[in-house]
Design goal:
eleven-stranded mixed beta sheet; about 20% strand; three-stranded mixed beta sheet; Peroxisomal Thiolase, Chain A, domain 1; about 30% helix; 16 strands
């Protein structure tokens, strides 16, 4: 694979807005999880909620797009000079040559939930929610394209928890085939009743802050996040996307293959595209949701495939599991590891599951990171692995 320059990137989550807030939280071991106060009758759990969305100054020009998910997208777009970088790419390449590829699992379904909760006596949506733009899985893409003036291919990827990792692979294909000259990739997912009560019905939600790979883990903590990265063929880059691997094992609707066959394929393809061996990876951000099966399978796979020198961790103890935004959020964490020379540990975890090998690290450490990798595994066996490398220009 020809490497792609990551010329700008940012993330917003429960730990704060922008890259500096995330780097500081990771170094300090400061979690963004809090007791659940979402929905009228909140579940007994912990969540990674982004503060201030309800009071956000929403531009009147985007009134038809107003919903929690798009508000989080708008907040995320203000961070780390991201909008300026996109405007510059549009000036250099033309609006029609910049693609937009965004991942989300539920999009703006929270607005649709509210509309059904407030149906009129004739069964119609309330007047303030008669806005088709927010009642579609493509709501996020419609809004961001409108807000930034992007006129190239606009794609929504919805493959559950791998959604905003797969956007990197799709963007690489668009640039390689000459369909676009630059691509803004990212993902946004916000909390809503369908997410919280849906995962609770699957008995996957923990009543305590999540403890990835802990022998006593009891389930996931749900969160919300927005993240973006600008990819180009060349330029002064923060880092480089050097590999990606995808697979769909389709073993079960909500459980991974017991031997991790799909994940194994995605890892192998990502390493092959990057032209590296497992021992070349300095830091690996694991999917690590703190659910019983995911952590069991992922831990065994990493112990088998990678040398003991690898530092691997899950960062969901900081942010919660941000579903369709998890891929981009954890890609940004890998980019920060490259930039800061810091490999995060695994927050809240005290006693590792016996399946874990020496690669699983509980404490963060300062050390140069030349290559970082991230894994995202979604429901239905949708798997994606990304590899990033440090470097100013290649």
């Amino acid at each position: 694979m020809i490497p792609l320059a990551v010329t700008a990137f940012t993330a917003t989550s429960a730990v704060g807005n922008g890259n500096a807030a995330h780097a500081a939280a990771l170094r300090q071991g400061r979690s963004g999880l809090r007791r659940n106060d979402f929905t009228a009758q909140p579940l007994d759990t912990w969540i990674g909620r982004v503060a201030g969305l309800e009071a956000l100054d929403w531009p009147q020009a985007f009134a038809r797009h107003d919903c929690r998910n798009n508000r989080l997208a708008w907040l995320g777009l203000q961070q780390d000079g991201l909008r300026d970088a996109v405007e510059d790419a549009i000036r250099r390449h033309g609006a029609a040559r910049v693609a937009l590829v965004l991942g989300t699992s539920t999009s703006s379904i929270g607005a649709t939930e509210e509309a059904y909760a407030r149906l009129g006596v004739d069964g119609s949506f309330p007047p303030d929610l008669r806005r088709p733009e927010v009642h579609t899985p493509h709501s996020l893409g419609l809004f961001v394209a409108h807000a930034l003036g992007i006129a190239g291919p606009c794609v929504t990827v919805a493959t559950a928890c791998s959604s905003s990792a797969k956007v990197f692979a799709q963007a690489e294909r668009l640039l390689r085939l000459g369909i676009a000259d630059a691509a803004l990739v990212g993902g946004v997912d916000t909390l809503c009743g369908s997410v919280l009560f849906g995962f609770n019905s699957l008995e996957l939600v923990s009543r305590e802050p999540c403890r990835p790979f802990d022998v006593a883990r009891s389930g996931i903590s749900l969160g919300e996040a927005a993240g973006f990265a600008l990819l180009e063929r060349d330029g002064a880059a923060a880092a480089w996307l050097i590999g990606h691997g995808e697979s769909s094992d389709a073993h079960h609707m909500s459980s991974p293959h017991p031997q991790g066959l799909g994940a194994r394929l995605a890892i192998g393809d990502a390493l092959a595209r990057a032209g590296i061996a497992p021992g070349d990876v300095d830091y690996l951000n694991l999917h690590g949701t703190a659910s019983q099966k995911n952590d069991e399978v992922e831990a065994a796979l990493i112990a088998e495939l990678f040398p003991a020198t690898l530092a691997a961790s899950s960062t969901k103890g900081w942010t919660g599991h941000t579903l369709g935004a998890a891929g981009i959020l954890e890609a940004v964490i890998c980019l920060l590891a490259l930039r800061e020379g810091f490999r995060p540990g695994t927050l809240n975890t005290t006693t590792l599951d016996p399946q874990c090998g020496p690669q699983l690290r509980l404490q963060g450490e300062y050390t140069p990171v030349g290559i970082a990798m991230t894994q995202s595994f979604g429901f239905g066996g949708n798997n994606c692995v990304l590899v990033f490398a440090q470097g100013a220009r290649r």
